[in-house]
TrEMBL record, chain A:
<keyword id="KW-0249">Electron transport</keyword>
<keyword id="KW-0813">Transport</keyword>
<keyword id="KW-0999">Mitochondrion inner membrane</keyword>
<feature type="transmembrane region" description="Helical">
    <location>
        <begin position="63"/>
        <end position="85"/>
    </location>
</feature>
<keyword id="KW-0472">Membrane</keyword>
<protein>
    <recommendedName>
        <fullName>Cytochrome c oxidase subunit 2</fullName>
    </recommendedName>
</protein>
<dbReference type="InterPro" id="IPR014222">
    <property type="entry name" value="Cyt_c_oxidase_su2"/>
</dbReference>
TrEMBL record, chain B:
<dbReference type="InterPro" id="IPR035973">
    <property type="entry name" value="Cyt_c_oxidase_su3-like_sf"/>
</dbReference>
<keyword id="KW-0812">Transmembrane</keyword>
<feature type="transmembrane region" description="Helical">
    <location>
        <begin position="80"/>
        <end position="103"/>
    </location>
</feature>
<dbReference type="InterPro" id="IPR024791">
    <property type="entry name" value="Cyt_c/ubiquinol_Oxase_su3"/>
</dbReference>
<protein>
    <recommendedName>
        <fullName>Cytochrome c oxidase subunit 3</fullName>
    </recommendedName>
</protein>
<feature type="domain" description="Heme-copper oxidase subunit III family profile">
    <location>
        <begin position="5"/>
        <end position="262"/>
    </location>
</feature>
<keyword id="KW-1278">Translocase</keyword>
TrEMBL record, chain C:
<dbReference type="InterPro" id="IPR048280">
    <property type="entry name" value="COX6B-like"/>
</dbReference>
<dbReference type="GO" id="GO:0045277">
    <property type="term" value="C:respiratory chain complex IV"/>
</dbReference>
<dbReference type="InterPro" id="IPR036549">
    <property type="entry name" value="CX6/COA6-like_sf"/>
</dbReference>
<dbReference type="InterPro" id="IPR003213">
    <property type="entry name" value="Cyt_c_oxidase_su6B"/>
</dbReference>
<dbReference type="Pfam" id="PF02297">
    <property type="entry name" value="COX6B"/>
</dbReference>
<keyword id="KW-0496">Mitochondrion</keyword>
<feature type="disulfide bond">
    <location>
        <begin position="37"/>
        <end position="48"/>
    </location>
</feature>
Length: 226, 262, 80
C-alpha cells in the first residue's frame, strides 16, 4: 500500500515487480548521469570567457554526441523490452480468476472448482474498523494463494475500467467485450491494494481493489467453506 | 484599373465568398447533425442551398479571372496544380481511414460477429453483377476522359466534346446503378460493422463520383462556351485528375470490400 | 508447498493458439467447440467436457448466460 510522503515504489510482492524496480533504478541511474553531465556542460559553458570566431564544425565531437546518446538509448531499451516480454509470458496457471469492472465496483468469479461469484464494494468510511484503510478497503476481498501461478482475466460490463495492483507490477484495462489476461504470482502473503485506473464515471475513485494473498492450504479451505 | 503587372503572381481581389462559404458550410454541418438527430431537414436544406450558391458564384469568379482576365499565368498554374495535388492527396487519406476501419473489422472479426466475415445473417452483394459492371463503366470513363484530353490538346473541339460527353454520361450511369444497388440492398448501415463500413466507404465514394461528374459537366459546359484552349485548360485537367482518383478508389473498394470481403 | 496445490487446483491450460494478452477468442472458441462436440458426439460424450471446463474457467459468467440465451432464441452468431 502507498503511504504518506512515499517517493519510490511500493514493496514488491511478485518477481515481476522486483524486476520492474530494478529497471526503474537502472533508468534513474542513467538519468542522473545525463543530468549531471549536461548540467556541468551548461554551467562551464556560460561561466567561461573563451571565444572562437572561426568555429564552423567539429566532426569528432559531433560523432560523439550522436553515437553516445544512441548507445545510451539502446542500454535503456534492451532491458525494457526484456521486461515487456517477461510480463507477457504465460506460465501454466493453477487457477483462473475472472474480474469484471462495473460502475462502480469489481465483481470476481472463480469457476475452476465450484462457482464462486461475489461483488467487491468499497467499505464506506464510517463502517471502517480500526486498522482498515479509508478508500482502499472493500467488503469482500479477493483471496488468492501465494507461490501459485494465477491467471487473471479482466473485462468490464459497462464502460472501460482498469484493474491494478502496484505491488504485483500489474495493470490491465477492463474493456467490455474483451478479455485481457494477466499473470499473478505472489511470493509472500499479505494484503495488497489497488485502485481503478481508467476514469470510469462519478465514483471512479471509489472502486478499490483489495487482494489477500494467503497460504495455499488456507486458500483451499476458504474455497471449500465458501 | 490597369491589368499590367510587373510580376507573374495573381493577387486576388476582395471577395465575399470565403466568409459566406464558411457560414454556409457551418449551417450545412449543423443542419446534417440536426437532420440525423431530429429527422428535420430544414437547416440541412438551407445549408445545401447556400453552399451551392456560394460555390457557383465563387467558381464563376475564378473562371472570369482565369479565362477572361488572364490572371492564371503559368506561374499561377503551377500553384493551382500543387493545390489540386495536395487536395487529392488529402482525399486519398480520407479514404485510407475507411479502408483502415474495414480491414480492422474484417481481418479479425469480433466474437460478437461470430468470428466471421461477412457476419452470419449478412447477405453481401454478388461482386460479379452490378459492381463488376460499375468497374467496367469507370474504367471506360477513364479511357473517354483521356480521349477528350488528347482531342483538346490537338485542338479537336468536336472529339473533345464527344469524349467529355461520354465521360459525364458514364458518371451518371454509374451513379444510377449504385442507387439501384442501394435500393435493393438486403442489409442497412445499421447492420453491425459490416453495414457501417460498407455504406460509409461506398457512400462517400458515391458522393465523390457525383462531385466528379459535376466537375466534368461544368468542364463540358465551359468547353461548349470555348473556354479551353489547347494550351490553357487546367480546369479540365483538374477534373480529369479527380476523376482518375475516384476511379482508383473504386477499384480498391471493388477488390477489397465487394470481392475479398464477401 | 505449491506441488500439493497443483494436484488439487486445475484450470484451463495455456493454449498456444491464443498467445496474446487478449484471450477473448480462447473463451469463445471453447464455448463453440463444446456445443459442436455435444451436437456431433451426443450429450453424454465425456471428452466434450474438456471444452466445457475450459470455457467455464475462462469466460465471464455473463457472457455464458448471454450466449446460452442467444442459442435458445436462435440468434447465436455462429452455426453450431
Amino acid at each position: 500500500m502507498a503511504t504518506w510522503a512515499q517517493i519510490g515504489f511500493q514493496n514488491s510482492a511478485s518477481p515481476l515487480m522486483e524486476q520492474l524496480i530494478f529497471f526503474h533504478d537502472h533508468a534513474l541511474l542513467i538519468l542522473i548521469l545525463i543530468t549531471t553531465l549536461v548540467g556541468y556542460f551548461m554551467l562551464s559553458l556560460v561561466t567561461n570567457k573563451f571565444v572562437n570566431r572561426y568555429l564552423l564544425d567539429g566532426q569528432m565531437i559531433e560523432i560523439i554526441w550522436t553515437v553516445l546518446p544512441a548507445v545510451i538509448l539502446i542500454i535503456l531499451a534492451l532491458p525494457s523490452l526484456r521486461l515487456l516480454y517477461l510480463i507477457d509470458e504465460t506460465t501454466e496457471p493453477s487457477i483462473t480468476l475472472k474480474t469484471v469492472g462495473h460502475q462502480w465496483y469489481w465483481s470476481y468469479e472463480y469457476s475452476d472448482f465450484k462457482d464462486i461469484e461475489f461483488d467487491s464494494y468499497m467499505m464506506p468510511s464510517n463502517d471502517l474498523e480500526k486498522g482498515q484503510f479509508r478508500l482502499l478497503e472493500v467488503d469482500n476481498r479477493v483471496i488468492l494463494p501465494y507461490l501459485t501461478q494465477v491467471r487473471l482475466l479482466v473485462t468490464a460490463g459497462d464502460v472501460i475500467h482498469s484493474w491494478t495492483i502496484p505491488s504485483l507490477g500489474i495493470k490491465a484495462d477492463a474493456v467490455p467485450g474483451r478479455l485481457n489476461q494477466l499473470n499473478v504470482f505472489f511470493n509472500r502473503p499479505g494484503v495488497f491494494y489497488g485502485q481503478c485506473s481508467e476514469i470510469c464515471g462519478a465514483n471512479h475513485s471509489f472502486m478499490p481493489i483489495t487482494v489477500e494473498a494467503v497460504n495455499p492450504a488456507d486458500f483451499l479451505s476458504w474455497v471449500k467453506s465458501f | 484599373m490597369s491589368n499590367h503587372m510587373n510580376h507573374p503572381f495573381h493577387l486576388v481581389d476582395k471577395s465575399p465568398w470565403p466568409i459566406l462559404s464558411a457560414f454556409s458550410v457551418m449551417s450545412l454541418v449543423s443542419g446534417l447533425a440536426k437532420w440525423f438527430h431530429t429527422f428535420n431537414m430544414d437547416l440541412a436544406i438551407l445549408g445545401i442551398l447556400s453552399t451551392t450558391l456560394v460555390m457557383i458564384q465563387w467558381w464563376r469568379d475564378v473562371v472570369r479571372e482565369g479565362t477572361f482576365q488572364g490572371l492564371h499565368t503559368s506561374k499561377v498554374g503551377v500553384g493551382l496544380r500543387w493545390g489540386m495535388i495536395l487536395f487529392i492527396a488529402s482525399e486519398v487519406l480520407f479514404f485510407v481511414s475507411f479502408f483502415w476501419a474495414f480491414f480492422h473489422s474484417s481481418l479479425a472479426p469480433a466474437v460478437e460477429l461470430g468470428s466471421a466475415w461477412p457476419p452470419l445473417g449478412i447477405k453481401p452483394f454478388n461482386p460479379f453483377q452490378i459492381p463488376l459492371l460499375n468497374t467496367a463503366i469507370l474504367l471506360a470513363s477513364g479511357v473517354t476522359v483521356t480521349w477528350a484530353h488528347h482531342a483538346l490538346m490537338e485542338n479537336n473541339h468536336t472529339q473533345a466534346f464527344q469524349g467529355l460527353f461520354l465521360t459525364v454520361f458514364l458518371g451518371f450511369y454509374f451513379t444510377s446503378l449504385q442507387a439501384l444497388e442501394y435500393f435493393e440492398a438486403p442489409f442497412s448501415i445499421a447492420d453491425a460493422v459490416y453495414g457501417t463500413t460498407f455504406f460509409v466507404a461506398t457512400g462517400f465514394h458515391g458522393l465523390h463520383v457525383i462531385i466528379g461528374t459535376t466537375f466534368l459537366l461544368i468542364c463540358l459546359i465551359r468547353h461548349t462556351l470555348h473556354h479551353f484552349s489547347f494550351t490553357h485548360h487546367f480546369g479540365f485537367e483538374a477534373a480529369a485528375w479527380y476523376w482518375h482518383f475516384v476511379d482508383v478508389v473504386w477499384l480498391f473498394l471493388f477488390i477489397s470490400i465487394y470481392w475479398w470481403g464477401n | 508447498m505449491s506441488a500439493i496445490v497443483t494436484e488439487e487446483l486445475v484450470t484451463a491450460p495455456v493454449d498456444p493458439r491464443f498467445p496474446n494478452q487478449n484471450q477473448t477468442r480462447y473463451c469463445w472458441q471453447s464455448y463453440v467447440d463444446f456445443h459442436r462436440c455435444q451436437k456431433i458426439k451426443g450429450e453424454d460424450f465425456a471428452p466434450c467436457e474438456y471444452f466445457q471446463k475450459v470455457y467455464k474457467s475462462v469466460c465471464p459468467n455473463s457472457w455464458i448466460e448471454k450466449w446460452d440465451s442467444q442459442r435458445e432464441a436462435g440468434t447465436f452468431p455462429k452455426k453450431i
